[in-house]
Design brief:
Oligomer: single chain
Order of helices and strands: HHH
Number of helices: 3
Helix content: 55-70%
Largest sheet: none
Shape: globular
C-alpha cells in the first residue's frame, strides 16, 4: 500500500512539473492578445491609461464599454 502511494505521488509530481511550463507559456501569450469578440474587460481591470488605450484602440468598437459617456476618453479615472 505504501509503495503504491509513493508511486502515485511521484507520478502526480511529474505531471504537474511537465504541465506547469505549458500553462505559463499560454498565460504569457494571452497577456499579449486583446479580446475584441465579447465584453471581457472593465476599467477596474487596468492599472494605467496605457493599458486601457491598448485595448480601447485594438478593438474596432467599444465592445467593452470602457467609454460609457462616449466622449472618446475611456476609463476617465485612469485617462483623465
Amino acid at each position: 500500500m505504501r509503495i503504491s502511494f509513493l508511486v502515485t505521488c511521484s507520478i502526480l509530481s511529474l505531471c504537474s512539473l511537465t504541465l506547469a511550463p505549458a500553462a505559463s507559456a499560454q498565460d504569457d501569450k494571452s497577456d499579449d492578445e486583446v479580446v475584441c469578440s465579447y465584453d471581457a474587460y472593465n476599467c477596474g481591470d487596468f492599472s494605467s491609461c496605457t493599458q486601457v488605450m491598448r485595448v480601447f484602440e485594438a478593438c474596432e468598437s467599444d465592445v467593452h464599454k470602457l467609454d460609457r459617456d462616449k466622449d472618446g476618453v475611456p476609463c476617465e479615472a485612469l485617462c483623465d
